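Predict both folds.
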Amino acid sequence: MGDEAKNWVAARVVFEAEEPEAAADLIADVFHGLGLSGVVVETPGRDAETDWDAAARPLPSACAVTGYVAADDRAAGFRRRLEAALSTLSRRSGIGWRIEYGEVDEEDWAESWKAHFHPERVGSRTVIRPSWEPYRPMPGDVVIELDPGMAFGTGTHPTTRLCIQLLERWITPGARFLDLGTGSGILMCVAAAFGAGQMLGIDNDPLAVSVAGENLRRNDAPEEGFQVRVGDLLEGIDQSFEVVAANILTPVILKMLDDIDRVLAPGGIVIVSGVLEENAETVADRMRAQGLAVVETRAWEDWAALAGRKGGLIG
């Protein structure tokens, strides 16, 4: 960590579409394809779908998706690729869009939203506590201390909440755990707290890999018990795991499921989140096609998460 704060380019894609939630999912997928591990989604009339509590700030006035990229010599290339990908998306889907660019200082960015991020219960036992906020736990609470930095992932977004709730249900002591798109490392921290054994986190953003490692150490995960590395989904993974989690986007989940059998141990559980509720049956069908029994589905605020078991009765 240097003495100078890092600057970031905020690329805010303001869009118009007949189905705003589906369009936001597609635009977020564009950002994901360019290597960004987190985005902010704004929907008029609703709280911004960020990982923060938006109650203390104005509601969005336009549909928008914002991603952040380091303001270095790669930023210009990122802009060109983003605009080209959005043009292609527009031709295929009819989504109208424009981009607003701005530069953000990391320290200013971090301080501006810390005021809106407070301890919050996100599962039956799991409480996420920002590293700068005090919290007095209730009996039985599992408290995860988190500082997401620019990696995103604080646990309050519906997709992350749903994933955590399924982890509470399906992680067993000693289970080997794989987290695809690890972001801030929050799911690995939860898995470790509920007894996971060896853990591997994969993210295509080097910043997320660094932040995840810091958060795992902050929560006293043993160094020999986890590894976090840069990668692309299941590429290069030659181990098997009892539990695999992927809190990403539907198109990426469908691609991942085609190869899941290779890394999922017999009887193992795969948990997928980041799925719009309207796409849940499509994902369930792909899981069944890969020989997975859909053993649990949860939904909240238009999002869904599913758990599938390898080698179980198809459900």
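Second protein follows, with its predicted structure tokens after the sequence.
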Amino acid sequence: MLIDMNAYLGHWPFRRLRHNTAPELVALMDSKGIDMACVSSASAIFYKNSQAGNEELAEETEPYSDRIVSFAVINPTYAGWEHDLRVCAEQFGFKGLRLYPNYHNYRLVDGACHELVAAATELGLVISMPLRQIDQRQRHWLLEIPDLDHGDIAGLVEAHPEASFVLLNGAGYVGARLGKPDNDLPPNYFIGLSRLSAVMADETRALMDNLGADRLVFGTGMPFKYADPALVKLDVLAASEDEKDLIRSGTAARLLGL
């Protein structure tokens, strides 16, 4: 089985996304041999009320509940977020949450963020954080959003040892506390494959050695990115089949309760 922890539906204001509807994404998954995908609304990142994007996602993905696992986008600085989060978890059946602090004008160190993480953890949601959504070199001139800070992420995962975090679209972990062995952080965070190197510097293998193969998860970034690079990285990775199976789906299935 192959589970993609890093996929999206909806629209992006600054570029056209292809395969961004549920039928198109599932067809793309079929063509790439991907069995399930964790999906959030790209539209919700920019809606003033992110819940509108979550509602669109719930409606569109309902016929594909065996293939698509929905993640909510919640802004903890927007009025009524507590109600919206509970609706996503209890009414829509979402399995996770995606945080966009740099798009929603708060920081991971802020009290509002800690309140959201605590509430999501109480509801049993996996908390994912894209360190970046797009490459800054290809950004629209109206959009300048920095990557999430590794130190702020470390502080958040340390403050919430009972939570489960999945870090997406990130790199450079080995040079930071998050990727070092014996870093005194709880083993409650997991790292997506999509921006990691698997040849040359081979950050993927280094993270496996430092943290364990069960701390890495497969992810493509579709439809912002092509799926093929992530598939090739997994194919060429210097790892046993048992280790690759953990990355392919073992860890993701455990986190999602599948």
